[in-house]
Q: What sequence folds into this?
């Protein structure tokens, strides 16, 4: 069984935590991680590029001039795509870039991401991370003690003081365990788990 030291916010060891081998000691396959991360990034694309087609342009439907006898092109109404201010031909419409990979693959990728942090010794477990008040300076001083300058901190549930204290700190993100994902785990160098969140993560991945 994988074992990791549990530290307090002063960086001192207070206990040890057993981590499930089937979650934190899995063989890592880059192709699986790539597939899931590509999916996550695709789902984040807004796909909001849009133009006005002929039917979307405001204007009269009256024919500009008679069909024959003027020596000019046979125009329709003022919304003609060939006229300035008219509709656009074959322009982009809002679309969704999102797609899904199988649930088993997403779950496996999450296990591999956790395992990669454990194998690289970039996984840290804290017994708690309690702040008396919303104070970025205090939060940063704790990070300096722990030696974290780029990390993802995972909590079991909402911790408003911690989340607000961390929101303006560069290269640091606080995430609740139910929102844990492959992209964020691999994006940050250190993965910091609050001890209570470990059981939540294990329960989620074993459903």
A:
């Amino acid at each position: 069984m994988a074992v990791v030291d549990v530290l307090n916010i002063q960086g001192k060891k207070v206990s040890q935590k057993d981590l499930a081998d089937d979650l934190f000691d899995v063989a890592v396959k880059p192709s699986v991680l790539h597939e899931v991360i590509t999916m996550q990034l695709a789902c984040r694309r807004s796909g909001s590029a849009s133009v006005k087609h002929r039917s979307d342009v405001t204007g009269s439907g009256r024919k500009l001039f008679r069909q024959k006898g003027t020596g000019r092109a046979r125009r329709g109404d003022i919304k003609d795509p060939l006229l300035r201010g008219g509709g656009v031909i074959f322009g982009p419409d809002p679309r969704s870039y999102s797609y899904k990979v199988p649930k088993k693959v997403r779950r496996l990728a999450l296990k591999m991401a956790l395992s990669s942090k454990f194998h690289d010794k970039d996984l840290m477990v804290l017994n708690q991370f309690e702040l008396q008040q919303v104070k970025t300076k205090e939060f940063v001083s704790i990070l300096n003690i722990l030696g974290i300058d780029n990390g993802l901190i995972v909590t079991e549930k909402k911790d408003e003081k911690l989340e607000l204290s961390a929101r303006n700190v560069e290269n640091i993100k606080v995430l609740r365990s139910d929102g844990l994902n492959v992209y964020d785990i691999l994006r940050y160098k250190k993965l910091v788990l609050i001890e209570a969140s470990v059981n939540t993560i294990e329960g989620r991945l074993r459903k």
Notes: The longest strand covers residues 13-19. The longest helix spans residues 103-119.
